[in-house]
Amino acid sequence: MKKLVLAVVLAALVLAPAALAKELQSISVCGPEGCNSSSGIGIGSGSGGAAFEAFRAAFEGRPTATGAPATVLDAVPAGEFYKLGMLVRGDRRGAGRFSVEMWYVKPNLIRFLRGGYLEPFKRVPPPSAALLQRLAEGVRPYPAPEVVDAYVNGKRAAHPAAYAALFSGLASTEAKMSSNATWVDVTVTPDRANPWFTADMQFLYMPSEQALFFDKPVKVEDDVASAIARDGGLPLPEPDGSSWRRVVAIGILGAFLVVAAALLLLRRRPRGAKRAQPTTA
């Protein structure tokens, strides 16, 4: 129970009213080929040491000049990422490498996975961000996750890779919820563990609003919304005004190019050319 409380406090890095008995010993930023540790690269003095002390103070529940990280509810685009491991002095880790593990996304985002549930991203203050970026130097990150399998209301998607667009940092939207709204379950499976989604997560999708619900609802683009409709046996979404405006704009542009090409050919035709006269035998 104590370890769970410690993990929750670390996940949010929220300042506690009293300092914790646990002491943060080191921070490591890891990729698929190895890690850089705050103890291993000599972060203990100067600006690096000050940044580590600020990070440790937040972890241990002591007041800091920069304050606690801010919660990020808007969608974060999927990309390269790292594991963030922490060692606590005196903690028995068993078979695990670190006392606590989180995710780190450059330049300043962290996220904690607890019991299959991803807590919201946190944006760490500048000193902590500088420390994590320094630790990440020379460490090859994990590549952006891909979707290898997807289901819509239990029906398998024909082209699951297209569902990766759901994690491209879609814009937030104000979904209009009604009592008779239709809800769809969307499940995606990643090719590797990552900070954005797990195989155990189900996302709620509202077809009428093309809204997918993360920490905040996001607006799903027309092509992915159409794929969800086809895979789930739902009516195809009606094109919105912006889609029709794009179609009209493309049509106007095409007509303009045809007219411009015709005028160019006329201008290039030689002027005053004499017609050839028939010859007589």
What does this structure look like?
The protein has 281 residues and is of the alpha+beta class. The chain folds into two domains: 2-136, no CATH class; 147-232, no CATH class. The chain is built from five helices and 15 strands. The strands form three sheets. The protein has a seven-stranded antiparallel β-sheet with strand order 2-1-4-5-6-9-3. A six-stranded antiparallel β-sheet has the order 11-10-12-13-14-15, covered by helices on one side. Strands 7-8 form a two-stranded antiparallel ribbon. Helix 2 (46-60) packs across helix 3 (126-136). The longest helix has 28 residues, at 241-268. The protein starts with a helix and ends in a 13-residue tail after the last helix. Mean pLDDT is 78; it is low at 1-21 and 241-249.
Instruction: Tell me the distance between the termini.
Output: 114 Å
State the secondary-structure class: alpha+beta
Q: Count the domains.
A: 2
Mean pLDDT: 78
Give the C-alpha Rg: 28 Å
Q: Taking strands numbered 1, 2, ... along the chain, how are they ordered across the largest sheet?
A: 2-1-4-5-6-9-3
Number of helices: 5
- Report strand %: 15-25%
Helix content: 25-40%
SSE topology string: HEEHEEEEEEEHEEEEEEHH
- Ranges where pLDDT stays below 50 over 5 or more residues in a row are 1-21, 241-249
Number of strands: 15
Name the overall outline: elongated
Major beta-sheet overview: 7 strands, antiparallel
